[in-house]
Structures are given as structure tokens and as C-alpha cells.
């Protein structure tokens, strides 16, 4: 007999205090979603009415971008593909990215193994308290500084493959930023790039099967606050992106699914890159649906400036645009605003937005 989780304190104690997570509720045999996880009707993801971002849509710059072509005669074409994706949808997938496919498979296997472990009180993180509903996921988030620190302090199950994932993806991230900065007329030297990605966090996300997936969300509507996010998703799918007005596919405001591509990594533009580019590059509003058929894992790396760094639109871009669309701020203050408020699409950017008269 599954326990009742509609009492707030008993739900917190079971999921967070005792470390059972959402997976523990599912393993207990629940047949319906607890009230705290039921999203408001406007936030529920109706898969039947969502568009699949494939077939015809893939002809609109959404095929995976082959990064190996950056080093050949197709360099300019690949640059255009990257820039166009950053200026429109804010999401794109890459292949031949330099991260071994065998490592990607090991990461997914390690994530499943980690969440199959017995409950641990120091394990999965709790969620924001101001959300209208809780997200149907468990996760662990770890800051990366160097391999030595990771080997000493990270959970044993995370030490083997996650640092390698960060290190092997670093060259790809730098290449992408060189392309994106160069397109803005900014000399992409190492010191600038180091400042843009001075902080790195790696998550292991686990989305257990859900008895009522139509009522829940694995991740609510949000944009990432950092510079670039590198995401490994498994073959289950469920990542949705909102179409902005400057796309020539679908309708403005429509949600489209980013389909899993074997061996590919998903790249999405974060709020800091939108601000640094003075709005030319677009952070993507996205969310994640749940499923009743199979548990899903994803492993993102979040890159961002250091908390003490000052952020503002790049001067070279402001000169070209004739106006700064965002004010200068300390990144730590943006982080505080981001986490203190409930997720609401791209409203996090309002913290830095300069409203024109």
C-alpha cells in the first residue's frame, strides 16, 4: 500500500529529508500524482498538440551541425549555421564535437546507476519553494573547479566520467564561443572566453516514470541563466523549446520537441550570452515533459561567468547597435534574482533589461 503524499510535511520528509526523491514515490507504488506536483492547466504539456521538431523543420537550420566541418572548406557555412541558430531558436544540436560517443553512453549508464542507489540524505537537491508546482524529477548538481577537487569531494559514482565529460567538451565550447564572438566583431581571445565560462556546473537529472504525465512537468518553463549549456539527452525525448517570433517554422509561441539524435549534444544559449550580445543571440525558453513508459536521464553542463564578474553588453556590439538594451550588473546579483523567483519563461531577463521610453 503506497503512503499518502498529499500532506505537505510528509511529502517533504519522504522526498527531501529522507532522500527518497520522486523515484522513491514511484517505487512505493503510487497510482496518481500528488497534488504538489500537478501543474496549473496552462503549464501542462499536451504532447498530442505539440509539434515534433523534425522532418520539414529540420530543413530550417535544425539538422545537427557537424563541427568537424569548421576546420575545412565549409567553415563559413558552418559558422552561418551556428550563428543563425543562436539568433533564432537559441537551441541547436552538434555532432563530431570531440566528446567520444563511448563516453556519452557511459554517462547515461552512470546516471541510471546513480539513481538506482539506495536513498541518501545528502543526495538529490530540493526544489524552489516559490514554484506553483514541484517538478517531476530528481537531480544532483555539482560545481567543477578541477579534477583533483572532483576526485576528493564528489560522490564516488560521479568521479569517473563526469570530469572527463567536462574536460572533453571544453574545446567544443571554446570553439562555439569563438564563432559567436567573432560574428559580433569581438576578438575572441582566451581571457574573454575564460571570463564567459569561468564557472561550470554539471547535473545528473533523472525523470522517473509518471502515472499522470499530462498533469506534470519534468522542468517548467525557463531559460538558463548562464552562457552556454551543453546537454546530453537519452533516447526517450521530452525536451521542448518555444518558437520565437523570428522563426519561419510553426507559429510564434508554439512548443516544438528537440528530438534525440544518437551521438549528438544539444547546445542552448543562456541569458548571459543574450545580454553580452545585446540581444542578438537569444536564450531559449524550454521545458521538459514526463512520460509514463520509461524513466529518462539527461546530463547538462552549465557554463557561466564567476559570481563576482560584472556583466554588460559588449562595447563593440553597443557601438554597432547604438543603444545598450541591458544594464551592467554583478553576476551574483543576477543569480540571486534567478533563484529567488519562480520560473516564468524568460522573465529572469527583466532583472537586467533597460526599458526604452
What is the secondary structure topology, with strand pairs?
Blueprint: H1 8-17, H2 21-27, E1 51-52, E2 65-66, H3 75-87, E3 91-95, H4 101-115, E4 138-144, H5 147-153, H6 156-159, H7 162-183, H8 190-196, E5 199-207, E6 219-222, E7 228-233, E8 239-242, E9 255-257, E10 265-269, H9 271-276, E11 286-288, E12 296-304, E13 310-311, H10 315-321, E14 329-330, H11 331-340
Shape: globular
Strand order of the largest sheet: 2-3-10-7-12-5-4
The major β-sheet equals: 7 strands, mixed
Tell me the fraction of residues in β-strands, as a range: 15-25%
The residue ranges in which pLDDT falls below 50 over 5 or more consecutive positions are 49-61
Number of strands: 14
Can you summarize this structure?
With 357 residues, the chain is α+β, with helices and mostly antiparallel strands. It has helices at residues 8-17, 21-27, 75-87, 101-115, 147-153, 156-159, 162-183, 190-196, 271-276, 315-321, 331-340; strands at residues 51-52, 65-66, 91-95, 138-144, 199-207, 219-222, 228-233, 239-242, 255-257, 265-269, 286-288, 296-304, 310-311, 329-330.
Report what the structure shows.
- The protein is of the alpha+beta class.
- Helix content is 30%, strand content 18%.
- It is built from eleven helices and 14 strands.
- It has helices at residues 8-17, 21-27, 75-87, 101-115, 147-153, 156-159, 162-183, 190-196, 271-276, 315-321, 331-340; strands at 51-52, 65-66, 91-95, 138-144, 199-207, 219-222, 228-233, 239-242, 255-257, 265-269, 286-288, 296-304, 310-311, 329-330.
- It has a seven-stranded mixed beta sheet with strand order 2-3-10-7-12-5-4. A five-stranded mixed beta sheet has the order 1-9-8-11-6, with no helix packed on it.
- Helix 3 (75-87) links the parallel strand 2 and strand 3.
- The longest helix has 22 residues, at 162-183.
- The N and C termini lie far apart (61 Å).
- Mean pLDDT is 88; it is low at 49-61.
